[in-house]
Amino acid sequence: MSDFTTIETNLINEINAAADEPALEAVRVAALGKKGSISELLKTLGKMTPGERKEKGPQINGLRDRVTAAVAARRDVLEQAALATRLAAETVDVSLPVQEAPENRGRIHPISQVIDEISTVFGDMGFHIAEGPDIETDFYNFTALNFAVGHPAREMHDTFFMHPDANGERKLLRTHTSPVQIRTMLAQKPPIRIVVPGRTYRHDSDQTHTPMFHQVEGLVVDRTSHLGHMKWILEEFCKSFFEIDQIKMRFRPSFFPFTEPSAEVDIQCSRKGGEIRFGEGEDWLEILGCGMVHPNVLRNCGLDPDEFQGFAWGMGIDRIAMLKYGMSDLRPFFEADTRWLDHYGFRPLDLPTLIGGLSLT
Ligand code: DAH
Q1: Separation CA 307–CA 301 (nearest Å)
Q2: Domain extents in the chain
Q3: Sign, CA torsion 279/280/282/285
């Protein structure tokens, strides 16, 4: 009897001294495991006389039950303690917003989106996208486009010039996308149907002008294209781009050195209640310049004006982006403010399509 009491006291002490769950498990296995001290005692019962068994049986079984219960109780205490430590160490701020996956979080800049929309509409009409360098020579930006040396139209472009290079040539930041007309006509033969989205630069800055801005140029050259075709193309473009069924356009005579005749195009709109609507109203809004390609420009590109003809136009991308998406100030386009981009930006995977809608987001 006293043997069992000693065993029990020692085991209970060990159990209560176990500092963590692995230590407790080691004590349990040493006592109650297959070869544990209590399991060995239980095995002796079989060899006892019935009288001995009657006396020792309840003692050994009782010992086993109390030790089992003590292990369970200690495990409870240890589990609770481990949980309390974890809760104290881990801090979860449930008021934090859930982090979005990067592909949902990123935003496409409205200018990029609008360039994609423009490319989608003209691409569907059979146009190719062409590009040219931002740093241009005087030849491509002015001379080949029929700007006479000393002509006041050059000054109107508020050009940024580079320092003269070793040959004394002053490169410049292109003031319009029109030089890509020249590059294209020098590089390929008609029929030519291109649109040229890109960056342009002028020394000008206020609410509606930034030193860097975007234009999209259009050029069609073949043997028969005329102003009637251009009118249709521009009307279809405006309807598609602004996602409206009807649009009224006004062609006003104008002057550009590289087109003859030249026109500026306004679209009709209403501005009631601070909101712009197209296809209705009393106001007119200028959106582009256009005309028939000047014979001198064709000649400068090695094309015979008696054989080839065509038309061109140039449109401010930032301007039509502001009109379409209701932005009143141009400057935030270039400020890289993520709050503005979160609001006005587009989801990266929602690409504009003519079937799905240009601007679903
Ligand atoms: N390049 C002109 C500008 O920046 C816009 C323009 C007008 C382009 C008429 C054209 C055009 O191609 O035909 O003011």
Answers
A1: 13
A2: 3-89, 108-344
A3: negative
Q: What is residue 272's predicted lDDT score, i.e. its pLDDT? A: 76
DSSP code of residue 160: P
Write out pLDDT tens, residues 120-170. Answer: 999 999 999 999 999 999 999 999 999 998 887 787 789 999 999 999 999
Distance 220 CA to ligand 1 centre (A): 14
Q: Which of 97, 243, 282, 124 is nearest to 195 (CA)?
A: 124
Beta strands in 132-207 (DSSP E): 135-136, 172-173, 192-201
Per-residue pLDDT of 256-307, as tens digits, reads 999 999 999 999 888 777 677 777 788 888 999 999 999 999 999 999 999 9
Q: 289 CA to middle of ligand 1, Å?
A: 5
Separation of alpha carbons 125 and 193, rounded Å: 9
Going from the Cα of 213 to the center of ligand 1, the distance in angstroms, rounded, reads 14
Q: Which residue has the tokens 């544990």?
A: 36
Q: Which CATH class is domain 108-344?
A: alpha beta
- Predicted TM-score (pTM) of this structure: 0.72
